[in-house]
Amino acid sequence: MSTNLQELLESNRQWAADTESREPGFFSRLLKQQTPQYLWIGCADSRVPANELVNLLPGELFVHRNVANVVVHSDLNCLSVMQFAVDALKVKHIIVVGHSNCGGVRAALLDLRTGLVDNWLRHVQDVRNDHADWLETLQPEQRVNALCELNVLAQARNACQTTVVQDAWARGQEVVVHGWVYGLHNGLLEDLSLTVSAAEQVGEAYRQALANVKKRYEAARVNSAA
User: Fold this and answer.
1) Which residues, listed in sequence order, are joined to residue 180 by a DSSP beta bridge?
2) Among residues 64, 78, 99, 178, which one is catalytic?
3) Is 43 a catalytic residue?
4) Cα angle at 44 between 47 and 55, to 5 degrees?
5) 121 vs 43, 78, 101, 168, 226, CA distance in Å?
6) Angle at which helices 122-130 and 140-160 pack, to 10 degrees?
7) CA nearest 173: which of 197, 149, 203?
8) Which candidate in 13, 18, 29, 47 is catalytic?
9) Chain Cα centroid distance, residue 164
């Protein structure tokens, strides 16, 4: 790899040329408008490229990423992205997306000290602590992915409880919050069945999605023991 990253610049030129060849005028049109219907809140992991996973072009997906796909009321970066997406771009869907074998979730689960990020991962440890007794019933190799899914549900619920989303619902704006997880082992996205389109749905939607996740892991545990 060169010190001036020329190989990346060359790759960019090739990508731009290929894109323009497939869709003449693409960049001229993109310059004039940004009208995504979706906000993706995902993990910063380099193995989880948002646009590619859902096969969308630039301009079709608004993206925010951080370690372990956390949504908390104190993160003004995430909240600012959400507000611009909802208020200015009028996105209709907010999708919180975790992924299997997440390093941040693993560190939170096992109390691994890695540096400054330990403070950020306290949010994921809060989720772990809320479900510690249940996680202990699983096989050790299941716990990371189980916590990945529990974390998605918790952060999607948090997204529902932000002033950005609550205010949008109060004024009758269509915004639907979803919780998904991506499998690094198979490249597939899975809907965790947390889909919320109104403030009064949040509690029950979370409880039902949580019950579904736990039921699935418990069934897998029984099957492996049989």
Assistant:
1) 97, 191
2) 99
3) yes
4) 55
5) 12, 15, 15, 29, 36
6) 110
7) 197
8) 47
9) 17
Tell the residue number behind the tokens 């389109």, with chain if given.
197
Pick the CATH number of 34-225 from 3.40.350.10, 3.60.40.10, 3.40.50.620, 3.40.1050.10: 3.40.1050.10
Give the residue extent of every domain in the chain. Answer: 1-33, 34-225
Name the token pair of 71: 């949504």
130 is catalytic: no
Residues forming beta bridges with residue 189, ordered by sequence position: 182
Contact assessment for residue 109 and residue 126, using Cβ atoms and an 8 Å cutoff: no
Is residue 78 annotated as part of the catalytic site, yes or no?
no
In this predicted model, what pLDDT tens digit does every residue of 29-80 receive, in sequence order? 887 777 899 999 999 999 999 999 999 988 999 999 999 999 999 999 999 9
Tell me, what amino acid is at 54? V
Using only the alpha carbons of the chain, give its radius of gyration: 19
Q: Which residue has the tokens 């941040």?
A: 104
Predicted confidence (pLDDT) per residue in 155-183, tens digit: 999 999 999 999 999 999 999 999 999 99
